[in-house]
Amino acid sequence: MQSQKFLRLALVSCVVFCVLPLQFGSQCNAATQPNVLLIQADDLGIGDLGCYGQPKISTPFLNQLAADGMRFTQFYSGSAEDAPARCTMLTGLHTGHACIRADMDYATTAGLGQHPLPAGQWNLGFMLSDAGYATCLIGKWGLGGGWDDAAGQAVNTEAMPNNQGWDAWHGYLDLRVGRFYYPTHLWSDMAREAQTGNTDPYNGGALYAPDSMKQQAIDFIDAHASEPWLLYYAAPAPHASLQVPQDSLNYYMLDAVSSAFEPEQVYSGGDFSPQSKPRAAYAAMITRLDSDIGEILQKIDDLALSDDTIVIFTSDNGPANEGGVDRGYFDSSGGLRGGKQELYEGGIRAPLIVKWPGCVKAGTVCGHICAAWDLLPTIAEACGAVMQEESDGISLMPALTEADTQAEHAYLYWELNSHDGGLQAVRMGDWKAVRSDVLNNPEAEFELYDLCTDPAEINNVALLQPDVIEQIKQIVGAARTVSEDFPFPDLEGYEAWRPRALEKSGWTLVRVDSESKTDGEDATSAFDGDETTWWSTSASPSPDPLPHEIVIDLGRERRLNGFVYLPRTDGETDGMIKDFEFYIGADPDTLDTVVASGQFPQEQDYQCVDFDCTRGRYVMLRAISEWGSQNTFTCLAELEILECAETNPPDPAPAELSRARHWEILE
Predict the structure, then answer these.
(1) Which end of the chain is least crowded, N or C, by CB within 10 Å?
(2) Are the beta carbons of 452 and 441 closer than 8 angstroms?
(3) Rounded to whole angstroms, how far apart are CA atoms 652 and 645?
(4) Taking the complete model, does pTM exceed 0.90, yes or no?
(5) What is the pLDDT of residues 276-318, one digit of tens each?
């Protein structure tokens, strides 16, 4: 995987970070390899739980979980729909970098699954398996793999959980099959198992899939009580269809015909199963999920594993508005705007509850701004696991344990190309920017909201905050890499390196070893700010041999960690630098330390190079070879020098050539 690099911007928030009870210390008294129970509900809104203010739906076990641990109020899901949300949480990469960025079926036939994870995609399963954990996934997958009825065989098997780091798994492979709670089949490991009695998933059946999932989860914990384990419980509820056994539905029924939420609006069916009491069914599905979680937690208690187990509860995205779901009636978005498949707060703000006895103080409420991609590095640190790939996430261990100051995100970024013409969103401090119809209009304007004073995103203040919009555009230009599978237009004109580029006033030319004096092609053109002029080394009557060098005085010592090379811009390629070396030093006559080397592509565009932060006043670019047919002379239209933020220590990342529009946070 490419090295992931990210732009650092200041983050200021009006929110309270964490409200901690008195006497809360920083000591974390826990097992060196704690068990991990990661629970992810499906389409559960932040307002659907009693501990987040829901007055109509009973969730006693999750309420108790919050009372026993830490409840986050500004946690975000990885996306506004199923598959990308799961991918971001498991890989630690937001949707600007993740390999799956939207729900996309492998084929339209139900059962064939969604766009698959690449073979061997590093994720939470691999990470804890490598750390010696028994790993199990229960519930909904949706990241590839399925069954081709016509061929009578499994497809995309490289993406199936057992090939993605999970020792055992049981549940739905395909999100389309997962719409129904009485499926004809479930998967256990690599076997497709028929669910006897479920011949008509649309109208119900004999075997309720969540019951099987709950029991499989309990059995896994029982079987691995003597070793560290990871259980990812990807619960399918309360995603439509609104199907629930009668014993759970009865909890919200006043009698045989009336629910506690009358008047009910009958959902006659369509893409989802019909439901005559959709409000009651929705509430019952959440309460039954809560009860299932209670049984799993009880098993952990019965085995005396509670003190050695981290329990994490969240949801994949905001509440839906389909299949009879009435999110407005229950205020499932918690007073926030929008829901599933939208990048307003209601679509991506999610519950997060963490219980970890001995490390997380009971009754804690935390307002730290964080996201699903933070969970991977958090679990890695808690479990002593090795992060083999870079992540967009930041470990939440300091927030959870109060052991140190919690690092904050410069920004959070989302994109979704499957709805409303393509959506993007950025949160930067208290600012939240959203834009839509991006696929049709790559220059679509951003809406801007101040979440400190306007958490419901009612008042668009974009026209009043041009400087903030400019920052947002820089972030959008920097926060993503190109995905061929999930195309999305780059925001033109906002190259990621520009915020780091030094002002050129005060720069002077120290020397060049070759220079053409024709047509004004002198060396100062390399830093005159004019893309249409360039330095060209001598090519006639006889060219000076390569290598060629240009040395520039920046005016004073700087802390540098990159440069940008722009080749000639007249449509020709002769003289474009191919192999190069870059030097930095305190003395122009002793520039002998190479801080970066590599090869530029033969493209007439800005080429960005970054390296470890290095102090120096003088810089030298040495062209060792060029792309022209004669391989003799050099052209340079513009040289930009990139500076480290003064507050940051040197970057430990190795030097490398990168044209990706994203940059590394300097930890």
Answers:
(1) C
(2) no
(3) 14
(4) no
(5) 999 999 999 999 999 999 999 999 999 999 999 999 999 999 9
